[in-house]
From TrEMBL:
GO molecular function: transaminase activity
Sections of the chain in a coiled coil: none
Keyword annotations: Aminotransferase, DNA-binding, Pyridoxal phosphate, Transcription, Transcription regulation, Transferase
Family: In the C-terminal section; belongs to the class-I pyridoxal-phosphate-dependent aminotransferase family.
Protein source organism: Dyella mobilis
HTH gntR-type domain sequence ranges: 17-85
Record's protein name: PLP-dependent aminotransferase family protein
Gene3D superfamilies: Type I PLP-dependent aspartate aminotransferase-like (Major domain), Winged helix-like DNA-binding domain superfamily/Winged helix DNA-binding domain
Amino acid sequence: MPRSSRGVLLPPVTGSRPRRTDVYLALRDAVLQGTLAPGENVPSSRKAAIDYGVSRGLMEEVYSQLVEEGLLERIVGRGTFIAKRATKPTDPDRHEETIQGVSSVSTRGHKLAGNVACRIMRQFKPFNAGVADTTAFPWQIWQRIQARAVRDLRRADMNFTDPRGVPALRRSLAHHLAQLRGVRCAPDQVVVFNSIQQASYLLALLLTNPGDAAWVEDPCYPGARAALELAGTTIVPVPVDQQGLQVEEGLRRAPHARLACVTPSHQFPSGFVMSAERRTALLEWAHRQDTWILEDDYDGEFGHARQPATPLHSLDRHARVLYLGTLSKSMFVSLRLAFAVVPEAMVEQLANIRTQLDAFGAPLIQLAMSRFMDEGHFSTHVRHMRNVYAEKAAVLAEGLMPLANHGWSWEKGTAGLQILLRHPDAQEVQRTAEASGLALHLLSSYRHESAGGDGLLLRFGGLSISAIRAGVEQLVFAAQTMRHSSRNKSSQ
Ligand SMILES: Cc1ncc(COP(=O)(O)O)c(C=O)c1O
C-alpha cells in the first residue's frame, strides 16, 4: 500500500507501473466501499503521484474526475477530502450478504456463517436484550480506577502478557468466587477469557476430538451450541424439564459423550434450577465416564432472588466440572471479560491453545477489573444489582398478573435478568406484540427439537422500571386481544 506523508493511506494498485484506470478504480472503490471515509483528507496530487509512482498530470486527471463524480471535494487552502456524501449508506446486512454472495467459501464456512449466535441488536426494544442495567453502574469509580490502571501500567504489561490472564485478576477472581459463589479454587486454576463462548470453544478443542459427542441442553443458549459446533463436536441435544437436564435421556442418546454443557444454577432460557438428584446423576456419569461438564454460571450472582443456587462445581468431588463465569451480566457486556476454573494440570495446555487463537487478553482492562474487585466495588455493585433486578422482576410479575389463570405461566420467585412466560400460542402473541414495538424471543427459537409448549423470553435486565411497566402492558394487551379474537372465531 503506498504510504503518504500527509493524509490517509491510499489504496494499493496492482502492478509496478499503474495506468490511469488502475489508480482511478482503486480510489473510486475505496471511497464507495467506505475504506476511505467521508471527510478524510487525501494527500495532495503531487504527493499521491509520488506514492503511486505516476506522473503529477495523471494524478491531477484522476482527482479531477473523482471531484466531478462527487467523490472528492477540494477546499481552497486546506486540501482535498473524501466528499461528505461519497459512501453508500451502510446496510447492517451487508456483511452477511457479502458472505452469502461469495461462491468460493467452503461448505463448512457457509454453514457456520449462517449460524449467527450473537449479533448486535438493531434496536433496543422491550424485551429483546440480555444485558445488564448500566444506568446503575458506578461509572465515576470505574473511570477513576481505569485511569489509575493506565497510569500504573508497567512497561512489562505493555509487552506480551500471560495467556492465562493477568495474575492480579486471577487472584481477585479466585477470592470473589469463594465469597460470592462459594466456588473454592486457587488463583492458579483461573484462566481469563474474553467471553464464556471463547472459553467453551477452547475447552472443547482441548477436550474433544472432531466428531465427539457433546450434550447440550435443549433448549439452550445459542452461543454455547455455536462454540461447541465451531470446535467440531457433534451436538447431542438433551431435553430439559423442571429439574434441569434429563440426565437419563442424555445417557440414552450418547452415553459416551466427551462433554456436557449445562446451566444448572439458572437454566437458559427456561429459568429452572437443576435438582439435587439430577446434579448427583450428572456428576456420577461424568466421573464414571471420565468425561467433562462445562458449567456455565452466566448470571450466578443474580440467578435467584433470595439465595443464588449453589454451583455444581462446589459439589464435585472428582474434578469433572469446569466452571465458567462471565462479567457480562454483573458488569457490562462490552467489557469482554470471562473466566474458567479448571484443574491446575489443565491450565498450561488450555493457555497454549489460547495462544494459537489470539495470544492473550488485553492486560489494561484486566488490571482495572482486579482493582475494582479488590477495593470492594464489585461486591457492593452486585449486592445493589440483586435488589435492582429483584425489584424489576417483581414489577414485571405484577404486570403479568392479568394473564394468570388464562393459560400463561411463569416461574415465581426467580430474579436473574429474564423471565420465561409460557403459553402454547406464544407465537401469535409475539406477532401481535411486535406491531406495538415489542421484540420477543420465542422459547421454540432456542430449541433443537420441537417439543410441546412454547413461551416468550422476557429479558428485562437492561430496561428501566417504567419501560418494563409500559412493555408488559402492551404484552398483556396483545395476549388479551388474541384471546378475544380466538374466542370470537370459535363462537362463529
Ligand atoms: C447462558 C449464557 N451463557 C453465557 C452468556 C454470555 O456470556 P459471555 O458474554 O461471557 O459469552 C449468555 C448471555 O446471554 C448466556 O445467556
